[in-house]
């Protein structure tokens, strides 16, 4: 059921965020570049990834891993746009 | 797995996913060391069986070794050459047939369509169209020095695989 929805999700996100357009102001750039997953989240993600490699994820764990991926993708797109904006403001770097 | 192997895999791959070519520096999700032929299928911990995989590719590939070409319906190995052709180019990226020689075979990207397992198929429904993310994020300079990673006008951008 999620196949179609999530297949389009990345496209929608990309269109909404438009990471190639460097339009973020400096304050926004700082805010966006600072958040990260917690140590506990990263450990959990590694554990889930190991289970995925072994093909032993439960349905709940699959949902969990999907959530981590979605959050990661969303933040990665935002960060990309933030870096582009930063670069735009510092053309010499 | 030996820690030195982990370092070597990262170095060999230049911190770029060997499946989708996403650089780790642009992905918040930590890349994983994947067994190309999974332990489940008696794959070893030797270097030639290890690949750097983005978090998404790692999870979508799982223990699988092949995928279905969405255009032809044919089963295609995730890596070109049974069992492995050791075809990493100098930077450490695998040669995917469709990317590098424009043959009709589609890249069986783990995130795009169901994969085949030796014992069970299909095991995974398409979820995230990761190629779109890769192409969006990697438009950001200075990454685009690798011709196969350029997002514009590629089969990947056209959603063909």
Q: Can you give keywords for this protein?
A:
heterodimer, A: 93 residues, mainly alpha, B: 161 residues, alpha+beta, 4 helices, disordered C terminus
Describe the structure in your own words:
The complex is a heterodimer of chains A (93) and B (161). Chain A is mainly alpha-helical and 93 residues long. Chain A has helices spanning 2-17, 26-33, 39-54, 59-89. In chain A, 76% of the residues lie in helices and 0% in strands. In chain A, helix 1 (2-17) packs parallel to helix 4 (59-89), helix 2 packs antiparallel against helix 4 and helix 3 (39-54) crosses helix 4 (59-89). Chain A is elongated, with a radius of gyration of 16 Å. The N and C termini of chain A lie far apart (46 Å). Residues 1-6 of chain A have low confidence and may be disordered. By secondary structure, chain B is of the alpha+beta class. In chain B, the strands form 2 sheets. In chain B, strands 4-3-5 form a 3-stranded antiparallel beta sheet, with no helix packed on it. Chain B has a two-stranded antiparallel sheet with strand order 1-2. The radius of gyration of chain B is 15 Å and the shape is globular. The model of chain B is unreliable at 80-129 and 140-161 (pLDDT under 50).
């Amino acid at each position: 059921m999620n196949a179609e929805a999530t297949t389009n999700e990345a496209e929608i996100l990309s269109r909404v965020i438009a990471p190639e357009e460097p339009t973020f102001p400096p304050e926004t750039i700082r805010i966006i570049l600072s958040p990260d997953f917690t140590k506990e989240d990263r450990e959990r993600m590694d554990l889930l990834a190991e289970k995925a490699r072994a093909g032993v994820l439960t349905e709940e764990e699959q949902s969990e891993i999907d959530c981590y991926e979605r959050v990661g993708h969303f933040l990665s797109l935002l960060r990309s746009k933030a870096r582009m904006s930063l670069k735009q403001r510092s053309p010499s770097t | 797995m030996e820690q030195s192997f982990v370092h070597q895999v990262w170095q060999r791959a230049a911190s770029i996913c060997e499946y989708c070519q996403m650089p780790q520096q642009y992905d918040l999700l930590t890349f994983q060391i994947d067994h190309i032929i999974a332990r489940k299928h008696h794959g070893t911990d030797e270097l030639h069986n290890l690949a750097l995989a983005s978090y998404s590719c790692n999870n979508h590939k799982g223990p699988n070794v092949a995928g279905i070409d969405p255009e032809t319906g044919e089963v295609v190995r995730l890596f070109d050459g049974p069992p492995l052709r050791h075809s990493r180019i100098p930077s450490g990226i695998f040669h995917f047939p469709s990317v590098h020689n424009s043959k009709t075979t589609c890249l069986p990207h783990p995130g795009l369509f169901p994969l085949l397992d030796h014992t069970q198929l299909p095991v995974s429904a398409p979820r995230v169209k990761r190629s779109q993310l890769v192409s969006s994020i990697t438009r950001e300079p200075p990454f685009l020095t690798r011709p196969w990673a350029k997002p514009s006008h590629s089969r990947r951008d056209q959603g063909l695989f």
